[in-house]
Amino acid sequence: MNQDIxxxxxxxxxxxxxxxxxxxHWQGRQVPCFITQHRLExxxxxxxxxxxxxxxxxxxxRFDIEELVCERIEAEAFAPDGxxxx
Length: 86
Fold this sequence. Notes:
Elements: E1 6-14, E2 19-26, E3 29-36, H1 37-44, H2 51-60, H3 62-74, E4 84-85
Parallel strand pairs: 3-4
Antiparallel strand pairs: 1-2, 2-3
Helix pairs in contact: 1-2
InterPro entries: DUF1488, Shew3726-like_sf
Pfam families: DUF1488
């Protein structure tokens, strides 16, 4: 568990983009974050055929996702809109 960032509890599926959306709080600001279905499947080590399985997998690898987001923030790898994509 990473103490530098806090990943919020709300996670949403965006079917058109095939990704999950969540927010992270870092240094007092909210950073929108995205993780693609492909990346999440790789982290979880399984196929994720629907929204429910993707959200469950997100919870199972939450700490890994926090670490990846932290690495992106430290590298200042923000998109032009200020978001982080995994």
